[in-house]
Predict the 3D structure of the following.
Amino acid sequence: MDGQQYFVSGSQPSPSVQPSRRWLSAFPSGHCCAIEALPRESSGRDVIWLSTSVRGWHALLVELLKTEPARRIVVLSGAPQPQEGLQAINVGARGYSHLHAVPELFHEIARVVRHGGLWVGPELVDRVVAATRKLIDAGGDVAAGTSVAMPPNLSVREAEVARAVASGLSNKEVADQLHISERTVKAHLGAIFEKLGVRDRLQLVLRLSRGSKSSP
């Protein structure tokens, strides 16, 4: 597997959090180190794993991303909760998963985030989509230009597609609803992702959610 795997054991002078046996089995060459020992700059393929057992993990996550926003950081929790996962993803973490996941899952998570994707559980995805649906629905009719949820750089049709996708519809459902082909939906999504600087549907949902909250 390309890139290095770093498990944050805490901060000096007393780093004490250890990775699970399954994480060690997944990444036998992985590094367990204090946050101060992390490389100043990642290779772009490295993955940093941060446990919520680390004292002040949220502040450490913010600091890591402040110094290098492109870092690929996965937050691990011994008892995953949707709200905690939302906190991590909204700050900029690329993944949120169980601390004691099986090695195969750790490999898959690393693969996804190294390629620019996000990894979260289905419950968290459902919660994000449901919350964003409420925000977007409250904005009114996109086509009529009354929605405050849609970024201004999207065309009317792109805004319709973005709104439908954020409400949880599949590409086929979006195509049926807007009376266009699935190929056209995919083309619009590609343009939407590029304009909004997102890589996948979940990042799109989070982007729209943040935009809705900041709109007057």
User: Anything to note?
Assistant: Residues 140-148 have pLDDT under 50 and may be disordered.
